[in-house]
Amino acid sequence: MKGKVAAMTGVREIEIKEYEVPKAEKGSVIMEVIKSNICGSDVHMWEGKHLFKNHVLGHEMVGRITDLGEGVVTDYAGEEVNLGDRIVPVYYLTCQKCEACLNGHFNICTHGSDYQGQLAEKYPHFTGGFATHYVVHSNQYFYKVPDNVPDNVAAGANCGISQMVYAMDISGLKINDTIVIQGAGGLGLFAAAISNTMGANVIVIDSVGSRLVDAKKFGANHVIDMREMDTVEKRIEEIKRLTNGKGADFVLDVAGVPAAFDEAVRIAKIGGTILELGNVSIDESQSVSILPGLITRKCLTVKGILRYQPWYLHKTLQFLEKYNDKYPFNSLTDRTYSLNESQLALHKAATKEVTRAIIEPNKEE
Ligand SMILES: [Zn+2]
Ligand SMILES: [Zn+2]
């Protein structure tokens, strides 16, 4: 049987290619892709701002098992799997042999991106989500999706939500602590919902009105509009006012701009913690000056967090099973496209004409 993939052939160029769908090898699983989200990093890759080239795009997907390789009888949580089950794979590999893996940092496995980034021409071809099928590698965690979690929500479970569940879980955030979230994009909204369930006082900062409205729906107790509070000083004063003078125990940077880190250092209270996730570029143009003395004098803790430990995808699916109805996770996707429309969908996502586009690769046109 043949299947199709949307492969990058150049910057802002996509070609639909056809390949024979392989049989599942020992330890691997073949799934038919039901839905695949367009994530901000897919747009970055399409725009050529990422090292991957000529690979199959897409990494946030949910699919249905069509073939099980020898030895695969359960998912990575020990739940029995059968043909037809809905599953979500972690989007990166864990080789178990590199320095990071040997020290338990599976989230930063040196070979984590090898599979996702490989050329579309290379076997097994179905290595990205914008495709009719996907081959779950034998070194790739995957989990069954709870019945009440809709496809649109499950498709995004393996990226932003898992990253936030992981970040909040290892942050040290406790009941009644104040967390200030810089940025109310998808990551900020997920973080608001998760810290709300943990009993924290949640303050979200952004400069887009509709995002601040969403932040309230996702559990923010207070929002700060940067258009009104237009200096760092004003925002620090407002945070003090909202916390009876105590300040921010935690500052989570998911704004995606270097200046947010400088502001986080200024906002965090004495003994506070900064969680840095929003700045991922290591390009020199993305540097910023900070006052290191503030980190010393306030005894701040700074934690950088990339991806998530793979088993957090399971915790995330359980979180969604429990809270899917409480917060409007399902409202975040606003347009669905076919596989042939991948190019159009990426264009719409890049120009922000749609908030979150989703590809339905097996949809009849
Ligand atoms: Zn993603
Ligand atoms: Zn590794």
UniProtKB/TrEMBL annotation:
Q: Write out the entry's keywords from A to Z.
A: Metal-binding, Oxidoreductase, Zinc
* PROSITE patterns assigned to the protein according to its UniProt record, in alphabetical order: ADH_ZINC
The protein's organism comes out as Anaerobacillus isosaccharinicus
Needed cofactors, names only, are: Zn(2+)
Q: What is this protein called?
A: Zinc-binding alcohol dehydrogenase
InterPro entries for the chain? ADH-like_C, ADH-like_N, ADH_Zn_CS, GroES-like_sf, NAD(P)-bd_dom_sf, Zn_alcohol_dh
**Alcohol dehydrogenase-like N-terminal domain: from which residue to which, for each copy?**
26-147
Q: Which domain of life is it from?
A: Bacteria
Give the molecular function GO annotations: oxidoreductase activity; zinc ion binding
Which residue range or ranges hold the Alcohol dehydrogenase-like C-terminal domain?
186-321
Q: Which Pfam families does the UniProt entry name for this protein? A: ADH_N, ADH_zinc_N
List the SUPFAM superfamilies: GroES-like, NAD(P)-binding Rossmann-fold domains
Family label: Belongs to the zinc-containing alcohol dehydrogenase family.
